[in-house]
Design brief:
The complex is a heterotrimer of chains A (191), B (271) and C (576). Chain A has 191 residues and is mainly α. Chain A is 83% helix and 0% strand. The longest helix of chain C is centred in the first third of the chain and has 37 residues. The chains are: A mainly alpha (191), B alpha+beta (271), C mainly alpha (576).
Chain lengths: 191, 271, 576
């Protein structure tokens, strides 16, 4: 009897934790979304008021690297969903982390290839946008990867409802960054 | 007024201008434009309306404070203000404020803005055109000269010295070289931001000859307060005379090599 | 509604964990209060220097001038003047008012008034304060850089705030300081929102929350939504300054000439207009509560007040364009922004009607918190109504960037928020520190402050209408402004009076902290949850989480039998 009551109390508390943390996570993500939305608004303003796009003397960067990184981040989101289904199986999380590093690697290749073509951050509004937006996004990815590591440690230690809540919150952030990257990819590189 | 003169006597030491009454002191600068009175009258109307409303608020605030203080009214009425009657009163106050104050001034302002201040003179109209370039910390003015085209050799270029005729529409196109400035003509009640990279425009028609101030209203650096020009308003004959005189001078002054002098742009046609 | 009951941990023992790195919302609230008051003093000193320069150009600033500006014999130099008004604005808005109302009273009141033991994320809360501390260090450090601190106005419009206009490192530090502060405030906001949604005491619906909590909640929502917008703008500005991007550069100064300084203004005011409401909403909430508490009757139309606050919160996000009429937007946009701005007066009128309705047939006690609350009604009336001139586009063409604007926004953002903050301080001081503040001193403080601030801000509106524009070091180089010398002197005298009045507050605050009479658990006789626990509020607030059974403003019910004229929120509502 006593055991049953404790168990019930525990799960109520966990439910409470889950609701609280998901409310907080949603608010946080809305905040981050506003940050990126402001950047995109600025981009839209430049794009709409500019007579030609990309501005004279600029060409769009090749689509190969950005497409690869999009693929990378898409697969990492998929693997994370796989991991969330059963967090005892840590392979999904490890794949996500590896793909996250892959994304960062491709992004730095992108920056390298741009600067080797003589496109620097200070060479006009279009390069400014490409570099700045990818930098800001990459900073968030770095933060998210450290969150993934934190999650990995928790998962290695225990498999409790608390860790599941943690996984779902970190997952929300990771998927959010994937969506932001997809929007950036489409608006900056493709269109 | 007694308090005012007492204050002037006690606290203001340089009494050189103390003959002015308070009302003269706080009047806005002399209106020398054909449309400045629109802004002044809207200001006065708004003042009347909001003073009326504020007096009502004060009657409520001070009156209730007096009537219902503890010693005079020891037991409060237990009412939540959720009765239909109370809600209706609150809603009615809100609606009345919106209709009497807001809609009225919005309507007038909207009409003035669309029909007067943003109604540009026709492209072929006989107007005086001036290009204005703000820089840290001076105003550059450019008149098209005899040929009527900007950025040619016969342009008249002045620094902090704006000269205009009465009785003719004047169209300014304004931009800035380095930072944002704001082209402020207090005597016409108008100002317009001068922004690097975009040309904005403004028109006025002046009525009274004289010398007036031109100021920069947007923070533009340490010597923002010194970014002062003079606007001399002439009669049409005097203005033509001045222009001819300047014209003769410019032909000598304009050196082809001096790129700084060719800061003008092709006059932008209005849409 | 409480989804779970927070555990009571042991009280911290060491000095560090108790007073410095504390997780306790009450201690963090007090830390924010000290922080805010310190910056209020600094910003106030800056204001006095600004006023001195305007009234007596070329005269050395008395007493401290000789030490601060030895190279000019105590006269404030023009570049320092620009720095002073920039930092006065920045400090007052972000480092004084925000910490006091949102940081201090947000932290202190939210858990107490909703019946929770602490914030939902205590660690985040502590982090939020210490990030604000880091930000303050960054800002103050900018003063000691070679070219001085930021000097582009608190709005810091590019291109003046890019390397073209301000090459010093001070401006970069300013951007970073505000960015860090933004992160800190967003953390706080997330915490507040989550706490209010999830930790309300059982039985407490949203309309059973005190209006103070409504104000703080809506503020937190606006903060979470719009501080990131400012953050993005500041990031781009920092990148322009540090990495040479060209987002805000245009015209002859830009090498590639395709950026747009106007973008920053849009971004800034998308944040900036809600910011006005971020500052004023907590004050509105506090005032709505206090009027009811001291008129000894229920808040008139409390639900309508809460909904009006919500309406304003929503409207505030779509009216920012009225700050930019003189930049010549398209006429259609100008008209729409004018219309939208005007609709704000509907909910504002609802406030005034409800506030006066609360006073109507009350039994008013003029204790110091009430005086300050009434003061807010008065000055906010003036501030709100004078906003009409600036919302109509044609009068704004003349008044934009004049002292009229300065007077207007000081009435709304400084005067009413400051008075609201003082009201809150006098009201919750017993619960914070367990002692009462001195009433006569508080009343002297109130009347001097009222007199001073009306002299200052009314005077500013007068000189503004006479055409005096903002941010000028010496207005009297202009002929049309020379007649305003006596009025400018009057404003300065009023400012000195107001500054003098604050000494009463400082003295009262420190004296009461040490020697004030001990406060009872419920000195003001009101029924919200925090007054049921001892003063000062004990560790983890509530031994037993209270169960809420009625609204926060149940005062003056004639059928109460228990000898009180109010009922606690934990008591079953006595039917009439």
């Amino acid at each position: 009897m006593a055991i049953v009551t404790t168990k019930k109390l525990m799960s109520e508390k966990d439910q409470g934790q889950e609701i609280i943390s998901s409310v907080a996570m949603i608010v946080t993500l809305v905040s981050f979304a506003m940050l990126f939305a402001t950047l995109m608004m600025g981009f839209a303003m430049f794009r709409i008021t500019s007579p030609v796009w990309p501005p004279a003397g600029m060409t769009k960067p090749s689509l190969i690297l950005p497409s690869l990184s999009t693929l990378c981040i898409f697969l990492s989101s998929m693997s994370f969903i796989w991991f969330e289904k059963n967090i005892a199986d840590k392979r999904g999380l490890i794949v996500t982390i590896v793909l996250g590093f892959g994304f960062m690697l491709i992004q730095s290749l992108l920056w390298h290839s741009l600067s080797s073509q003589g496109v620097f951050v200070s060479s006009g509004i279009f390069p400014s946008i490409i570099y700045t937006f990818t930098w800001i996004h990459a900073a968030h990815i770095v933060a998210a990867i450290s969150l993934l590591f934190w999650l990995l440690f928790s998962v290695l230690k225990e498999n409790t409802p608390k860790v599941r809540i943690q996984a779902s919150n970190v997952g929300k952030f990771w998927h959010f960054l994937g969506i932001v990257w997809f929007i950036m990819f489409v608006t900056i590189f493709v269109l | 007024m007694n308090l005012y003169s007492l204050y002037m006597k006690l606290f203001v030491f340089n009494a050189h201008a103390s003959e002015m009454t308070l009302l003269e002191r706080i009047k806005p600068p002399l209106d020398i434009s054909t449309n400045g009175h629109l802004i002044d009258s809207l200001f006065n109307l708004t003042t009347m309306l909001i003073t009326g409303f504020f007096i009502l608020v004060c009657i409520g605030l001070f009156g209730f404070s007096y009537l219902y203080r503890k010693s005079r009214h020891p037991v409060a009425l237990y009412v939540h203000g959720t009765a239909r009657k109370h809600i209706a009163i609150v809603a009615a106050i809100a609606a009345l404020v919106f209709m009497i104050i807001d809609m009225q001034i919005t309507g007038i302002s909207n009409h003035d803005y669309m029909q007067v201040f943003a109604k540009w003179p026709k492209e072929d109209a006989d107007v005086v055109r001036v290009e204005v370039l703000g820089q840290q910390w001076a105003w550059n003015f450019r008149y098209p000269g005899k040929d009527g085209i900007f950025n040619t050799e016969d342009d008249i270029v002045t620094l902090n010295d704006l000269r205009l005729p009465v009785g003719k529409k004047i169209v300014f196109q304004v931009t800035a070289k380095d930072v944002i400035h704001s082209f402020y003509l207090p005597n016409t009640r108008l100002k317009l931001d001068a922004m690097p990279g975009r040309v904005s425009k403004m028109w006025v028609e002046l009525t009274k000859p004289g010398v007036y101030d031109v100021a920069c209203a947007q923070m533009c650096g340490t010597f923002h307060y010194r970014m002062q020009g003079k606007m001399t308003v002439y009669s049409q004959e005097d203005f033509d005379k001045w222009q001819n005189e300047m014209q003769n001078r410019t032909t000598f002054a304009m050196e082809k090599e001096n790129a700084d002098l060719y800061w003008g742009w092709k006059w932008l046609a209005s849409k | 509604m409480a989804f779970f009951e927070q555990h009571i941990h042991d009280a911290p023992k060491t000095f560090l964990s108790k007073y410095v790195f504390s997780f306790d919302h009450k201690v963090i609230g007090k830390q924010f209060l000290w922080y805010g008051i310190a910056f209020l003093g600094l910003g106030g000193m800056m204001a006095l220097m600004i006023r001195w320069t305007l009234a007596f150009p070329g005269e050395p600033f008395p007493i401290v001038g000789q030490f601060l500006f030895p190279q000019t014999n105590g006269v404030v130099p023009p570049d320092t003047y620009a720095m002073l008004f920039t930092l006065h604005g920045t400090i007052m808005i972000f480092y004084a008012i925000t910490p006091i109302l949102i940081g201090a009273f947000g932290n202190f009141c939210i858990p107490l008034l909703i019946g929770a033991r602490d914030m939902v994320f205590p660690t985040l809360n502590m982090l939020s304060f210490w990030l604000a501390f880091v930000s303050a260090i960054l800002l103050l450090a900018s003063l000691f850089t070679p070219l001085g601190g930021a000097a582009g106005g608190w709005v810091s419009y590019p291109t003046l705030s890019t390397l073209i206009g301000s090459p010093g490192i001070g401006q970069t530090l300013w951007c970073l300081a505000l960015f860090v502060l933004g992160v800190s405030s967003t953390m706080g906001a997330v915490n507040y929102i989550a706490t209010i949604i999830t930790l309300r005491a059982p039985g407490m619906g949203y309309f059973d929350m005190p209006l103070t909590i409504w104000g703080l909640w809506l503020t937190a929502i606006l903060n979470a939504l719009f501080l990131p917008v400012l953050g993005a703008g500041l990031l781009l500005l920092t990148f322009d300054r540090v990495f040479g991007t060209t987002f805000f550069l245009a015209g002859a100064a830009a090498t590639s000439g395709s950026g747009d300084p106007l973008l920053f203004q849009h971004v800034f005011w998308i944040f900036g207009h809600p910011e006005v409401y971020i500052l004023i909403l907590p004050a509105w909430g506090v005032v709505s509560d206090l009027l009811s508490f001291f008129a000894r009757k229920p808040a008139f139309g409390a639900k309508a007040t809460a909904l009006a606050m919500t309406t304003i919160t929503i409207l505030s996000t779509v009216v920012y364009g009225h700050h930019m009429y003189t930049t010549q937007m398209s006429p259609l946009l100008t008209q729409s922004f004018m219309m939208l701005t005007m609709t704000i007066s509907i909910p504002s009128a609802v406030f005034f009607a409800n506030w006066l309705g609360t006073l109507w047939k009350g039994s008013i006690r003029f204790h110091s918190p009430m005086l300050f609350a009434l003061g807010v009604v008065f000055v906010f009336g003036l501030g709100g109504l004078t906003g009409l001139y600036l919302a109509t586009v044609t009068t704004d063409l003349y008044l934009h960037d004049t002292y009229f604007v300065v007077g207007h926004f000081h009435y709304t953002m400084a005067a009413s928020v400051l008075l609201g903050g003082f009201a809150a301080t006098y009201f919750w001081f017993p619960k914070m520190f367990g002692r009462m503040m001195n009433e006569p001193l508080a009343k002297i403080h109130f009347w001097i402050t009222m007199l001073g601030l009306n002299g200052v801000f009314m005077g500013m509106m007068v000189v503004g209408y006479a055409g005096m524009h903002r941010r000028i070091y010496n207005p009297f180089v202009y002929e049309f402004l020379q007649k305003l010398i006596p009025i400018n002197m009057f404003i300065t005298y009023s400012a000195l009076l107001m500054g003098f009045g604050q000494l009463f507050f400082v003295y009262n605050f420190i004296y009461s902290l040490v020697k004030g009479p001990k406060a009872s658990a419920n000195p003001w006789e009101v029924g919200t949850l925090e007054w049921q626990i001892p003063s000062p509020a004990p560790h983890y607030n509530f031994d037993v989480i209270p169960v809420v059974k009625c609204g926060p403003h149940e005062l003056g019910n004639p059928n109460l039998k228990n000898g009180r004229d109010f009922q606690y929120q934990t008591e079953e509502l006595v039917e009439v």
